[in-house]
TrEMBL record:
Pfam families per UniProt: Epimerase
Protein name as annotated: NAD-dependent epimerase/dehydratase family protein
Domain of life: Bacteria
Domain NAD-dependent epimerase/dehydratase: 21-240
Residue stretches spanning the membrane: none
Native source organism of the sequence: Ottowia flava
SUPFAM superfamilies: NAD(P)-binding Rossmann-fold domains
Cited PANTHER family: NAD(P)-BINDING DOMAIN-CONTAINING PROTEIN-RELATED, PROTEIN YEEZ
Length: 342
């Protein structure tokens, strides 16, 4: 597989500043990473938020910074107003805490579709593996069978189907970039920061959510964001609806991420602990988030690997930071490590 470090010179077409990119969910994991990647290339970013002053205060203060505008991703009028002149809408927003997906996810994307139709923009959606059930196999191309066994998976299938229909029937082009579990230097709703380590605390243990010997796929957010930006730059080469798989880092036995944490921290004996799923089940009736996480446990019990052949055929290579360096940056950014031993 042809992959290269994230600081490798990029030969993709440039994104000319003929209009901003509108990011919905710019304070989230993927939305924040793609905002930083766009700004680093000199691309103006407009970020929709219900409280722009708070978002501005929490965001990195050093320039360049996005243009924060007030609005709600559920409000079609505010999304349309924010999208004026935009060449792309990054739809990186989800209901918080996995709650009310069935009620809110599709209305949210309808607002983005209406805005994209009005201004002639393409929608970019960060996808995941929820679409695929246990029957999908362990080595998945973009057109693999989608038979989800969870409610969230069914919503994701419906979400992508709606974008595909919008491309065919309304002339609204869209792009789905599917990836494995996120990890990166910023806190967020992902297993690395909320399950394996504790942000803001020195490393005392590493929690392993997966079953012994089961492989798992990880996506380093800066690499994934760089991939999204390169795909935006090649919009002219894309069909009205496209889906791509991001390979990222494959942990073949479910131990490689934990071992990388040990190496980076210089603690080869750092304890490894299995996640007590039984305790999550006991607390699930009173903690809705735990109930939603338990629903996705099958992804930790069997390997599900996204193949990146189609993406590499288009880009020539996949942006890729070596695992130890990606883990080091993540731990430092999360406040778990002041610096990595040489």
């Amino acid at each position: 597989m042809n992959i290269y470090p994230a600081n490798f010179p990029d030969t993709s077409p440039s994104l000319t500043p003929d209009g901003p990119v509108l990011v919905l969910g710019a304070t989230g994991s993927f939305g924040g990473a793609v905002t930083q990647a766009l700004l680093a290339r000199g691309v103006p970013v407009r970020a929709l938020h219900r409280d722009p002053a708070t978002a501005r205060a929490r965001a990195p203060a050093s320039p360049p910074t996005p243009e924060w505008v007030r609005g709600d991703a559920m409000d079609a009028a505010s999304v349309r107003a924010a999208a004026q002149g935009a060449r792309c809408i990054v739809h990186a927003v989800n209901p918080p805490g996995y709650r009310r997906w069935g009620e809110l996810v599709l209305p949210m994307v309808e607002a983005s579709i209406a805005a994209a139709e009005a201004c002639g923009a393409r929608i970019l959606l960060p996808g995941n593996v929820y679409n695929f059930g246990p029957d999908a196999g362990s080595d998945l191309a973009e057109q693999g069978p989608q038979h989800p066994v969870t409610r969230k998976g069914q919503v994701r299938v419906a979400l992508e189907a709606r974008l595909q229909a919008a491309a065919a029937e309304q002339g609204v082009p869209s792009l789905v970039l599917r990836a494995g579990d996120f990890f990166g230097p910023n806190p967020g709703s992902h297993w690395f920061a909320q399950g394996m380590v504790r942000p803001g605390q020195a490393l005392r243990r590493v929690v392993l959510p997966g079953a012994p010997g089961v492989g798992h796929q990880w996506a380093y957010l800066p690499d994934l964001a760089e991939t999204a930006v390169q795909l935006m730059a090649r919009a002219d080469a894309l069909a009205p609806f496209e889906a791509f798989h991001f390979h990222g880092h494959w942990d073949a036995d479910g131990q490689q991420m934990a071992q990388a944490i040990r190496r980076v921290a210089g603690q080869p004996d750092l304890p490894l602990r299995r996640l007590p799923w039984w305790a999550l089940r006991l607390a699930a009736p009173v903690v809705p988030l735990l109930r939603e996480l338990i629903e996705m446990r099958y992804l930790w019990r069997q390997p599900l690997r996204l193949r990146g052949d189609k993406l590499i055929a288009l880009l020539g290579a996949e942006p890729h930071t070596p695992l130890d360096e990606a883990v080091r940056r993540s731990l430092v950014g999360l406040g778990c490590l002041s610096r990595a031993p040489a």
